[in-house]
Amino acid sequence: MKVVALANQKGGVGKTTTTINLGAYLANEGxxxxxxxxxxxxxxxxxxxxxxxxxKNTIYHWLIGTDDTSxxxxxxxxxxxxxxxxxxxxxxxxxxxxxxxxxxVLKDRLKTLANDFDFVLIDCPPSLxxxxxxxxxxxxxxxxxxxxxxxxLEGLTQLLRIINLVRTKLNTALEIEGVLLTMFDARxxxxxQVVQDVREHFKKQxxxxxxxxxxxxxxxxxxxxxxSVYDPQSTGAIAYKTLAKDLLSRQKVAV
Length: 255
Ligand code: ADP
Ligand code: MG
What we know:
It holds the Pfam family AAA_31. This is Cobyrinic acid ac-diamide synthase. By secondary structure, the chain is an alpha/beta fold. It has one domain: P-loop containing nucleotide triphosphate hydrolases (Rossmann fold), CATH 3.40.50.300. About 40% of the residues lie in helices and about 15% in strands. It contains eleven helices and seven strands. The chain has a seven-stranded mixed sheet, sandwiched between helices. α1 crosses α11 (about 235-255). The longest helix has 20 residues, at about 235-255. The protein starts with a strand and ends with a helix. Bound molecules: adenosine-5'-diphosphate and magnesium ion. Adenosine-5'-diphosphate (ADP) binds near residues 14 and 214.
């Protein structure tokens, strides 16, 4: 089971969109995929058509509970399950404050699912707090979505510092899965400049595929569908499908 955290403490950079659509295409490729939402906003669940508002079988209940029954819920996609979040999760930080193992709660819980999935994608909240630390501690690798905007690289030093801190103290094996450029608008020179800067900075760690700005990607969640269902011919769909294949082929090389 490979665990990938999708992290960037900036909001609105495409973490959730990437989690849902990468997850859907990995599932289409026959991988058994679990999406774990650890953002109290709960967008991954609602984007896949779940009604999360009153749910009592969320990530929060699993993390703080002791019941070992799998909390993974089916979605409308074969091979794709999810542990959704909702606002209840915002209590987690306070609940575990005095717990010496507070950084390992998710990692310990995930052990019970080790035989059930090939990929776990963790959709992180827009912060570097205890939830993101739990994700980075539980993960084999971190995928960093970067929006092709002027401030793309801002805050990245902080994220990389946290990743290094987790590596030294909590999870020595944590790798960078890749840096993904998102919301690329080919009409602006700025976006192309950002792509160039990010490639210069991160070299081979940047995926060749760039996710274009595509309105279909922003519409799909309101229909509770991944882009592979909502509009498989769209530019956004083709890009996420390419990303899934790229990610899979890199695993084969690594094995
Ligand atoms: P995050 O999870 O990092 O906060 P989201 O994935 O929720 O970011 O994306 C923020 C907003 O931008 C959402 O409304 C989403 O639908 C939209 N969006 C994400 N990626 C794209 C894209 N490539 N093209 C157009 N809209 C996008
Ligand atoms: Mg999100």
